[in-house]
Amino acid sequence: MYTLITAAATSQAHQLKNKLNTDHIILGDYSDLPSFMLKSSDMLRLPDPKSMAYAHEMLTLCLDKQISTVYALREEEETLLNEAVQLFEEYGITIVEKNIGNNLT
Known about the structure:
Elements: E1 2-5, H1 11-20, E2 25-29, H2 35-38, E3 43-45, H3 54-64, E4 67-71, H4 75-83, H5 85-90, E5 94-96, H6 98-102
Parallel strand pairs: 1-2, 1-4, 2-3, 4-5
């Protein structure tokens, strides 16, 4: 199983990846990423939080990519995913609060 960290274009995402210190991490972002970054199997284009079906699109992505934990680093992503936390938990997917992710040592 994999861990997804959103906001891949930010230094915060890369810092968290280093703190988690595991090979099973995928970074993702809905903002435009350079094509060379998307060629890596460790990088994904994520659904846009402005989509009406955002939570369902993220759930489908998590199931397809065997993601069991999501660190949503952008406020809008975190808010929408927290609204659907029960749905994700039904599929064994944990949504980690941004503050918890920031405090990992």
